[in-house]
């Protein structure tokens, strides 16, 4: 091979091949762009409904049950606003009244854990985004 062909091969062709191989190698080694991340789920929020008084009608007696309820909701389940707590209180009172009318609990012996379970089951389809119901206290009293 003549000397000038060897020189052209070394000066022109080898750098072009090396540059192409370097580009391909670099594109394989370079980090890929990160996949778009899903936005984090909002933290659940506790909505304190405060004390709710439920009348319990029995034969010849009316007793009452004071229940302090807190609902745990997903952050995006319900809108914020002044109408949220009254709506949740109405749904809770309506459910507790129906449970009392159907004799699902005895106001004198009911435990807060039992009421919480009943509330979670009953409010699951009424309140979107409900994660849990907490009954802080359940105290019976009779008037008069």
Helix content: 25-40%
The shape is rod-shaped
Stretches where pLDDT falls below 50 for ≥5 residues? Answer: none
Total helical segments: 3
Largest sheet composition: 3 strands, antiparallel
The total count of strands amounts to: 3
- Give the N-terminus to C-terminus distance in angstroms: 120 Å
Q: For the CA atoms, what is the radius of gyration?
A: 35 Å
Which range does the strand content fall in? 25-35%
N to C succession of SSEs: HEEHHE
**Estimated structural class:** alpha+beta
The main sheet orders its strands as: 1-2-3
Overall pLDDT score: 85
**Quaternary status:** single chain
Supply the key terms.
3-stranded antiparallel sheet, 28% strand, 3 strands, single chain, 3 helices, alpha+beta, 144 residues
Plain-language structure description:
- The chain has 144 residues and is of the alpha+beta class.
- Helices cover 40% and strands 28% of the residues.
- It contains three helices and three strands.
- The chain has helices at residues 3-29, 84-101, 112-123; strands at 45-58, 61-73, 130-142.
- It has a three-stranded antiparallel β-sheet with strand order 1-2-3.
- Helix 2 (84-101) crosses helix 3 (112-123).
- The termini are far apart.
């Amino acid at each position: 091979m003549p000397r000038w062909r060897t020189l052209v091969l070394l000066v022109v062709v080898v750098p072009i091949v090396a540059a192409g191989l370097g580009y391909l190698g670099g594109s394989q080694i370079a980090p890929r762009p990160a996949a778009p991340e899903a936005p984090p789920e909002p933290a659940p929020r506790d909505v304190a409904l405060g004390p709710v008084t439920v009348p319990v009608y029995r034969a010849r007696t009316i007793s009452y049950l004071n229940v302090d309820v807190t609902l745990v909701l997903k952050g995006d389940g319900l809108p914020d606003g002044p109408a949220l707590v009254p709506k949740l209180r109405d749904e809770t009172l309506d459910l507790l009244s129906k449970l009392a009318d159907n004799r699902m609990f005895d106001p004198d012996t009911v435990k807060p854990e039992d009421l919480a379970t009943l509330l979670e089951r009953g409010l699951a389809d009424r309140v979107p985004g409900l994660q849990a119901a907490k009954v802080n206290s359940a105290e019976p009293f009779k008037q008069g």
